[in-house]
Amino acid sequence: MLSFLEERRNGCKKPELLVRAEVTRRAFCLELSKGRDVQRIHQSGINTLDIDPTEGKYLLSGGSMGVIAVFDIETVPAAKEVTCEAVCTVGRSNKHVHKRSVETVQWYPHDTGMFTSSSTDCLLKVWDTNALVPAETFTMDKPIYCHDMSPIATKHCLIGVASQSSHISLCDLKTGSPTHILKGHRAAVMCVKWSPKQEFLLASGSQDNKLMLWDIRKAKGCLMALDQHNGEAVGHSSTAVRTAHSGHVNGLCFTEDGLRLLSYGTDDRLRLWDVVTGKNTLVNFGKVTNDGRKNVKLAVSSGAVPDAAFVPNTADVAVFDVQNGELVYDLKGHYSNVNCCTFHPLFQEVYSGGNDSNILLWEPDEGRVVDRGEEKQVKQKKGRTFYGQTMTATEDTWSSDEDG
Amino acid sequence: MLLKRGRNKLRMLSTEGATTTDRGVNCCGCESLPTLASEILVKAMKRSRVPDVFSNRKKVRVTGTAHNWEESSISPSEVASETKAALLYLRSLVNVQVFEDRIPPIVFKQQVYSIVKCKTAADKQINDLREKKEIKLFRLGKESDTFAIVFTDDYREHVRRTMADGPAKERFLDTVLEKTSDVSLDKKTMTDLGFKDEEITQLLHGGVLNVRDVGSWWIAIPGAGIFMKCFNKGRDSILRSIRKSKYQKILQQELEDRKLRAVQKLGIQYHIHDIIGAELVTRLDTTSGTMLRLDQ
């Protein structure tokens, strides 16, 4: 790294290269945070997490009992022993709480005064964060699996809603009612995602094994349905048309530049698609186990080259190199299935939530060792003084220090 | 001074959970060292997988004096790529004599993944070889993405040997083998290539085409049935023997020493490459050798 800095000083390398190199290095060497964790509020599994895009200060989480909690995650990253506390929660006692499990929560892209949550009780609620009261409620006729709002849209305020019915509703925040319906899928739609670079492009994956790209301005139908074989007649029958996976499409994530789309299916495969042409880039990620009952939230790093994809894989989060499909390593820490993970773009941290009601924080490994020694001694002085020195279970009291 | 530093480091590695007093004794006041050897090992493994962003790792460069390309008789493009070398090795594992020459040497695409580390690079090279018509891919097996690979020369010889003579056969060998690299054919392509219905029936009888759907066919290997039966039996018997072991894991050496009858025809190495590449087992390196662990 020192030679890199020297070259930057000379002008041989651009400063942006240093940023990119360091972000990539940090994105690829994550480990469970030694000093920081998130307060445990949820009593049941956590289905969804979202970090606010404006400042990266608050973490929104939704659980399977309908509970929504907001955590303050703003700390200096190298701080010792900090627990991120919950700022506010919509608990079971709140009048407006969801009756069933919350499947997706998302901050309003432009400020943290508002957030949206959707649940399998067929309701999409738009909450006012300060009052914790829903400002608007959209009622669908079937349980909602996922919803998404475009992060860059200026010409529209539409929320795409993926539910058990085979069409995607677009709900307008300005008017307060569903305005569009996108028809094309034949079975329940499991996931929906707006492109981060084009405000009218929407991708949706469903239980009929198809992944469709939509331009919402086009009246007739979808732009294209992505084909995993790229047109080659390799599927089971010649009439099996253009499926993206050989199983349900469970999770979707665009890369930060909006040029590629990562999709996760119950055929245990991850596929990387080129958004412009709609072709399968044929990057082979190997077998990634997928339970498949509900929407799984993937995350892709931003600012790193090559990008790292964080994919929940039963009880671990698998980190893949997006360019060549290599499994770099697994993040092991959860006791049960992981449902969602989200990437903090400013600090290159990953928050993951699972069925064990824990939100785990994964930080880049700086080789730092948390020295708990002094703190423990200080604590002892304040309290009881008759315990002289801490004894660890494996220490023996008969060997002397001089022997090897 | 050096000796003393070394001794301190060793001691810290051997005791678990060193207390404050131990950590405090450190020469030069440097930062605390990791307490366990395994922690160091894990960090080293992680460091090797992180992409080399600061160009720290020296790339091994082969100097020009190693091989003089202008004077040698082989051109650089003829040197086999990693995947082709893997395919040639796997092909050598198949002993066609055991099957009384009824099959050509068949290799599975997933076996290449257990030899070549990067799956995407292996896929790309297999596709390149396919475009150059050096190998041919066939769909064999239960899952929708198991592909069998046969070298084009072997396949052509095999078809010549096993199929009954006829105009359809020659036309098939000329057009389908040389021109197209598809896995399946449909009615339109067949008529374009000049095949009449009776000729298609002849090809079906000869075993070169398999029915896929109304009006479309898989290109197949005649006589592949006996191979598939033997292969499936061998694979199931290996997986069963791993499943029966305690903790569902077994040392590769021990697996090779176990004489399973169903595995003798194709050979244990062939099956091991197959189950590793199909990700039915994971290969781990341990101090006693390679271990294969069954995935759930």
TrEMBL record, chain A:
<dbReference type="GO" id="GO:0043161">
    <property type="term" value="P:proteasome-mediated ubiquitin-dependent protein catabolic process"/>
</dbReference>
<dbReference type="GO" id="GO:0016363">
    <property type="term" value="C:nuclear matrix"/>
</dbReference>
<dbReference type="InterPro" id="IPR042238">
    <property type="entry name" value="Rad28/ERCC8/Ckn1/ATCSA-1"/>
</dbReference>
<dbReference type="InterPro" id="IPR036322">
    <property type="entry name" value="WD40_repeat_dom_sf"/>
</dbReference>
<keyword id="KW-0158">Chromosome</keyword>
<dbReference type="InterPro" id="IPR020472">
    <property type="entry name" value="WD40_PAC1"/>
</dbReference>
<dbReference type="GO" id="GO:0005694">
    <property type="term" value="C:chromosome"/>
</dbReference>
<feature type="repeat" description="WD">
    <location>
        <begin position="242"/>
        <end position="283"/>
    </location>
</feature>
<protein>
    <recommendedName>
        <fullName>DNA excision repair protein ERCC-8</fullName>
    </recommendedName>
</protein>
<dbReference type="GO" id="GO:0000209">
    <property type="term" value="P:protein polyubiquitination"/>
</dbReference>
<feature type="region of interest" description="Disordered">
    <location>
        <begin position="380"/>
        <end position="404"/>
    </location>
</feature>
<dbReference type="GO" id="GO:0006283">
    <property type="term" value="P:transcription-coupled nucleotide-excision repair"/>
</dbReference>
<keyword id="KW-0234">DNA repair</keyword>
<dbReference type="InterPro" id="IPR019775">
    <property type="entry name" value="WD40_repeat_CS"/>
</dbReference>
<feature type="repeat" description="WD">
    <location>
        <begin position="331"/>
        <end position="372"/>
    </location>
</feature>
<keyword id="KW-0677">Repeat</keyword>
<keyword id="KW-0853">WD repeat</keyword>
<dbReference type="InterPro" id="IPR001680">
    <property type="entry name" value="WD40_rpt"/>
</dbReference>
<comment type="pathway">
    <text>Protein modification; protein ubiquitination.</text>
</comment>
<dbReference type="GO" id="GO:0000109">
    <property type="term" value="C:nucleotide-excision repair complex"/>
</dbReference>
<feature type="compositionally biased region" description="Polar residues">
    <location>
        <begin position="387"/>
        <end position="397"/>
    </location>
</feature>
<feature type="repeat" description="WD">
    <location>
        <begin position="95"/>
        <end position="128"/>
    </location>
</feature>
Automatic annotation (TrEMBL), chain B:
<dbReference type="GO" id="GO:0046579">
    <property type="term" value="P:positive regulation of Ras protein signal transduction"/>
</dbReference>
<dbReference type="Pfam" id="PF10494">
    <property type="entry name" value="Stk19"/>
</dbReference>
<comment type="similarity">
    <text>Belongs to the STK19 family.</text>
</comment>
<dbReference type="InterPro" id="IPR018865">
    <property type="entry name" value="STK19-like"/>
</dbReference>
<protein>
    <recommendedName>
        <fullName>Serine/threonine-protein kinase 19</fullName>
    </recommendedName>
</protein>
